[in-house]
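Could you please consider the sequence and fold following this short note?
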Amino acid sequence: MTAQSSSSEIAKKVNDFLEYLEVEKGSSPLTIRNYRHYLGRFMDFLSKEGIRMNLVDINPEIVRQFRVYLSRLPGYKHQGTICRKTQGYHAIAIRSFLRWLIKNDFKVMSPDKIDLPKVAERQVKFLSSEDVGRLLNSPSLSTINGKRDKAILEVLYSTGLRVSELVRLNRDEIDLDRREFGVVGKGGRARVVFLSKRAAEWIDAYSKVRADHFKPLFIRHKGKIDPAVADEKMRLTSRSIQRMIKKYVRKIKLTVDATPHVLRHSFATDLLMAGADIRSVQEMLGHKNIQTTQIYTHVTQRHLREIHETFHGKGN
């Protein structure tokens, strides 16, 4: 096999793997984009280093050289190098690719030979109940945009939805009487999501001031609305909701840089501090693995320590 065909073989199999993620595994477009980026960077490395190889030639030494290469790449806006967490994502992508190749009977290196880098324990940012209240009450209710933003904030905090799940919601999917709806989250996992009474009331209030018939639950309200515009052109994006929350964070001068994901963290933390069991919280967040949900136990353990130190022995 020539060097040209060797490179083509790896590129073809990477493409087949990405199609598998899309069609058979039901991975999100963002996940597929990330895997394409990480594996594409691996192939770029092979090309830049003049390494011509077949699939069977991928070995621990090649992977080691790639990881050294990664550790020296400039980071975001060329500030330092790319972080260890991002380097780890590249290793995860190669491991997943090798695992898929083995599943399809290719004789390649065992993915277990690739160790993942140790990274600092993930820090969970969340809002205090006081800060949550301030943020939820920050939109002006005199405009349709303000009513929409109020509904968005209430829904995010009452459900723990990912922002990508929120923007995909349509009006006809929400049962306001039962205060529930279904979503399909990461990895194609479906779950039922429950609304607080307040969140349901604000969705209803926002819906009643809308004169349009667009399908998305949350849409943009800028300039004159043309009823002929396609539904998807009107749908808010994840980025627009992130910007909206940052606007209110600045408005009320929050000390925590709140984001949609910080509201998700706040939802989970609030449940656990109130006594909810971790398995139920896992289901409500749509986590595949309980280990993902366990990042919140560190927060609640600190909370319990504070209670212990505040109250223990006070009655003696």
Summary: Strands lie at 180-184, 190-194.
